[in-house]
Amino acid sequence: MKTADLRNMNRDELIAKQISLKEELMNFRFQAKMGKLDKPSKISQARKDIARILTILKEASHAKQTKSQKA
């Protein structure tokens, strides 16, 4: 998922996407253990997408906090 697309989402959408990606990651790991995962790169891609979402949420929180301190 592109970072620009994630930045256009609101906080609730990002959290929902994070939850769905965590579930997906769990399924990918299970499939990998069973030997049925077609592309092992799906695991790393899901982890990176989760990290992107967490980074954007943290940036938004930090920007909001900085903005309130300046006011």
Describe, in plain words, how this protein is organized in 3D.
With 71 residues, this protein is an all-alpha fold. The protein has a single domain, classed as Helix Hairpins (Orthogonal Bundle). Helix content is 83%, strand content 0%. Helix 2 runs antiparallel to helix 3 (41-70). The mean pLDDT is 93.
Question: What are the SSEs and their pairings?
Answer:
Blueprint: H1 3-7, H2 11-34, H3 41-70
Brief rundown of the structure:
The protein is mainly α and 71 residues long. It is 83% helix and 0% strand. The longest helix is centred in the C-terminal third of the chain and has 30 residues, at 41-70.
Assembly state here? single chain
- The residue-averaged pLDDT reads 93
Q: How far from one another are the termini? A: 35 Å
Evaluate the radius of gyration. Answer: 15 Å
The CATH class is: Mainly Alpha
Which class do the helix and strand fractions yield? mainly alpha
Taken from the alpha-carbon principal axes, the silhouette is elongated
List the domain count as a whole number: 1
Number of strands: 0
Number of helical segments?
3
At the fold tier of CATH, the topology name is Helix Hairpins
The helix-strand sequence is HHH
SS strand fraction: under 5%
Summarize the biggest pleated sheet: none
Low-confidence stretches: none
Helix content: over 70%
CATH architecture: Orthogonal Bundle
Structural descriptors:
71 residues; mainly alpha; Helix Hairpins; elongated
